[in-house]
Amino acid sequence: MLVHGVAWDASPAGGLPDGGSPALRLQSPSGERSAVPLTAGTGLGFRVLDGLWCLGHSKVHGPRDRTHVPCPEAAPAERGRQCGQCFARDDSRLMHDFHRGGSVPPGLRAYLMQPHWLYIASFANGATKVGTASAPRKWQRLAEQGAVHASYVAHAEDGRAVRILEDLVTRELGTPQLVRSSAKAAGLLEPRAVVGLSCVHKAAAVRTRELLDGLAMDGFSTVEEEWQRPGFADEACDSYGRRHPYPQAFDGGTHGFTVRSLSGAIALAELPGEECGFIADLGALKGRRIEFGDYRTDVPALQDSLF
Question: What sign does the dihedral 80-50-30-144 (CA atoms) show?
């Protein structure tokens, strides 16, 4: 099975706007898509095969309609998680230059011209970023990011306006548009104190709104709207129990563990015979081929800090 990563679905109708429930997305050799739900107590056992493989490409038909096209050659990945051919055919790669005058296909234009949101997200180590989300993915976008705290700071008429705002916040305030998954995982090993992290986040959101309020620009309005973090992420984000990095890389070998909590694609995992938790970035499985089975992760001797 080819792993396409961890995705969070939409919340059920009438439920909290928290991003819904996560699942490990998979693709069979014949191209069929499936998913393994990730809940508290989910056991995963698998073997990682050699190589990093292309995940295909997307064709965007409209605001809520897109098609995933499996790689026709089942080729090794060359650029990120795509081969060169699929990268060139992927509609999504064009959206980042749309606000600078880049041309896009009609379907992607329709997607980009729908309302978008600008958010500020903070992670367990205190790192904070600015980002955007389309209206249909307003809540699960932040769940997939693995944010600990997040706030929406602006509502824009379309994707062009929101990306202009995003670039402006980066330029004027120095707020980055990317926090690497390795930094997110490292932060979850020793999360910052809840009160301190909340203050860091609120200060960043206030600075951003103050900047936006002073703009002489049409097509958006500032907002104050807090994101509801998924309850399944709470233990990973806030617990202060003993934690260690997951002891193996996901580029090979056999693995077996139980998922206790999940922040974005990063799991707080439990290994047989161990009382402490392990921080495992399941996002590192993206583009890998795995075979499920009755496997267990080998755990080296551990020594917790005395201080």
Answer: negative
